[in-house]
Amino acid sequence: MPRNILAVDDSKVMRDMVRIALTGAGFSVREAGDGIEALQRINGDPIDLIITDINMPNMDGLTFVRHVRSKPGYQRTPILILTTEGTDGKKAEGKAAGATGWIVKPFTPEKLLDVVRRVCP
Question: Which PANTHER family does the record match to this protein (predicted)?
Answer without folding.
Answer: CHEMOTAXIS TWO-COMPONENT RESPONSE REGULATOR (PTHR44591:SF25), STRESS RESPONSE REGULATOR PROTEIN 1 (PTHR44591)
